[in-house]
Fold this sequence. Notes:
Blueprint: H1 4-7, H2 15-27, H3 41-54, H4 63-72, H5 90-102, H6 111-119, H7 138-150, H8 159-167, H9 186-198, H10 207-215, H11 236-246, H12 255-264, H13 283-295, H14 312-319
Amino acid sequence: xxxxxxxFQMGQLVADKHVRYVLMSEKKKESxxxxxxxxxxxxxxYWGLTTLDLLDKLGSVSVDEVISWLMTCQHESGGFxxxxxxxxxxxxxxSAVQILALFxxxxxxxxxxxxxYVAGLQNEDGSFSGDIWGEVDTRFSYxxxxxLSILKCLDKINVEKAVDYIVSCKNLDGGFGCTPGAESHAGxxxxxxxxxxxxxxxHHVDKDLLGWWLCERQVKSGGLNGRPEKLPDVCYSWWVxxxxxxxxxxxxxxxxxxxxxxxxxQDLENGGISDRPDDAVDIFHTYFGVAGLSLLEYPGVKAIxxxxxxxxxVINRILLTKGTQMVF
Length: 328
């Protein structure tokens, strides 16, 4: 078995080309955020900008341009939409808060208004709706908890009830679903484990059982899938790996093979990362590929926080100002 340092020589991250790919996506229409569908621009902006920051190139974009667009997406309710003129949703609200955190511009927010919008989406049973239409999903529990934690407003919700609801979505295999009784899925597991990590509630997780389920997601190619019998996908390099790190079981997978799988998904000529080797690249998989390499401590990629999905230096700047140290 080769050491992890020599394994990095199998392929190479073409970081400069990925930076150019992200920046070129900005040029295709009027704004940087046009890399994905119109109503999802806020997410696209978060993926692209975080990728740039992890590669130490956030200075390549105009802060003022991004932020002036971002603030046009805020609704009078305090929540943010995926693009100007669309309806607010907790998903886009978190992306907006994360982008402002990247740029160290959280102070331009009316924190009371944003946090009240998010807190107002908590239901009587502790769960969260995504918006006023009422869809409930453990994704929204994570998003609300993550967002309020960054804004230092977790006291605006009933954290105990929120945790109880998440725990009610735990399955016999150790994993978590989107609602009680729903099947375990790596994306939902990240959301539930991340929310439990942020609230200091990881004791509710059966770490060995869940760790085993997550490790079983690694297939022969080295890539990870989201559920049994599915194809591997670069994005699970984030969902599975971050969960394993939070429960301290990441040493149970073959990191070198996963690094190789991610590097094999790069477009070596034009930049960008795809879901699987030889597929078309997109901004979503580019972000999750780079974020996965960050979790794998790949040289030249900044460290990312597994619970907050933001660079560690950004989270330290926000959270350590109030003397809170995250402990996983």
